Amino acid sequence: MSSILVVGSLGYDTITTPLGRRENILGGSANYFSLASSIFAPVRIVGVVGEDYKSEDMALLEARSIDTQGLQKVNGETFFWEGRYEDDMNEAITVETRLNVFQDFKPELPESYKASEFVFLANIDPELQMDVLSQLSSKVFVGADTMNFWIGSKRAQLENLISKVDVLLINEGECRQLTKSNNIVHAVKSLTEMGVESVVVKRGEYGFMLYSQGQYFMLPAFPVAEVIDPTGAGDTFAGGFFGYLAGNGKRPTIEHLKEACVYGCLLASYTVQDFGVAGVARVTKSELDSRLKNYAQMVSGLPKGQFEAEMR
Amino acid sequence: MSSILVVGSLGYDTITTPLGRRENILGGSANYFSLASSIFAPVRIVGVVGEDYKSEDMALLEARSIDTQGLQKVNGETFFWEGRYEDDMNEAITVETRLNVFQDFKPELPESYKASEFVFLANIDPELQMDVLSQLSSKVFVGADTMNFWIGSKRAQLENLISKVDVLLINEGECRQLTKSNNIVHAVKSLTEMGVESVVVKRGEYGFMLYSQGQYFMLPAFPVAEVIDPTGAGDTFAGGFFGYLAGNGKRPTIEHLKEACVYGCLLASYTVQDFGVAGVARVTKSELDSRLKNYAQMVSGLPKGQFEAEMR
């Protein structure tokens, strides 16, 4: 088992969905990620919070033995995002973003973090993501996410970053934007041509597609009858994915990558069942195993192929 | 093995997609359906064509031993549809529909068709679909499709029909419209509450979801690098689905339904690879088996579950 390092945002969100509204609840990619990944492996977190960051929110991470030595607490207010979802729960509409202390965030790895083998660079400025990469001394497997803002404003830096990581996790809309292709088969191939070995496209309720070493692996999401709040589903996916790989410890095979996608996908299904991090924060290992069994039934049942005998 | 009866449209389509344009090519739900289903079982077709219907298009069916005794050839022009697709290949935009001889179509089953056990009522007026049902003497398994036009204009008749069939095949957008629900888990449940035992939601490139006897089964579509023309993919799915079930002959189990969905899905992937019926018309059995093997690799690789030992 290896430790996993995540660099990303910690913040407060105000979220409105067809099923309700919550103000100033805990959010941020690094929170979703580390709550999910800590189910499988020890987690180290790098990020910045303001003076208003609540001690109970810090305690939530510490209760999972998440190493928070890399969290900077600085003067000012914590990152804030307000978003809403309308009928299409697959797409968030941003109402307001206040970067606050995140504006001047410069990730600095504590000495003890520099030898991290599994690393996830959540969605932040691609130049900062590169900077983190350069601080690492013994990385084995590094992944990154990004978003429309960076694709539009820092494409060259982003493409450079993509060529330096092992896996890119990206949502489907942003995958289209980045590759200028509406066809997912073309899109994932063109991403690997930028120099990344593996790509995971996150497709909301339609699940994911992994492309690695010329192989595809894709499955739909676990069907959830009441999607309360999709915020953080992608970061939860990434957390489950990386957590599982770090839990294995070795450089992942294609089989590990496939299994990691399934855990990422299943964990995300808990996130969407409640507001904020509440869903993923309360998943137990036995629940996860039981949902996996349930899911396996939903995606198993292929025919054996009937024409082979006939052909001979 | 049982015969399968399909009632639907035969027509000529003019189609524009980002990859080209074809004028007056063969189309119609019954054509796509019967070309797909005839791979597995004998097919009987009921529909209407005009004087302009080409003998080569009739010969295409007869070469597959499709029984065309139920095809009426009447004075006037054949059904015509013009549509186009923009970037979103999952959605057709209708440019023009000329019902022509389809306007006064009244399906009449030849005596030899009345004992059909497997029956598919493709998308036509739900009152005509009901009328066909009433002509059948020994049906075992009946399915129906529908479209936005009938949901809007003949909802009561459509709901009555749904309560009388064994499976409803419907695309995702129309499923939302019919159930007034954006959540697919709710939607398929509420359809079964209308009295149909099984529902298959067709989701374009995202595949399908089957709901039957409280069980879900869902998989993504086979990924196609060049989607030339999605027209007829849904009817091809239905053809593969019903063809496989009729090929088995018995009233389907849940396992048969799952397998049938996979064949439907795979056959549809050939349809989208060319304009009109060309893709599905040239699928060979050995190709289909080989694509199934390829597909099986793309959707297999679930983790075994790792916490069970720990829990005991």
Flag low-confidence runs of chain A: none
> What's the multimeric state?
homodimer
CATH architecture of chain A: 3-Layer(aba) Sandwich
Share in helix of chain A: 25-40%
Distance between the termini of chain A: 48 Å
Q: Could you state the order of secondary-structure elements of chain A as H and E?
A: EEEHEHEEEEHEHHEHHEEEHHHHH
User: Hey, which two chains have the biggest interface?
Assistant: A-B, 51 and 51 residues
CATH class of chain A: Alpha Beta
Averaged pLDDT of chain A: 95
Rough outline of chain A: globular
The overall number of domains of chain A is 1
Q: Could you name the CATH homologous superfamily of chain A?
A: Ribokinase
Structural class computed from helices and strand pairing of chain A: alpha/beta
Q: Radius of gyration of chain A from the CA trace?
A: 19 Å
Per DSSP E runs of 2 or more residues, the count of β-strands of chain A stands at 13
How can the largest sheet of chain A be summarized? 9 strands, mixed
What portion of residues of chain A belong to β-strands? 15-25%
Number of helices of chain A: 12
CATH topology of chain A, by name, is UDP-N-acetylmuramoyl-L-alanine:D-glutamate ligase
| Strand line-up across the major sheet of chain A | 5-4-1-8-9-10-11-12-13
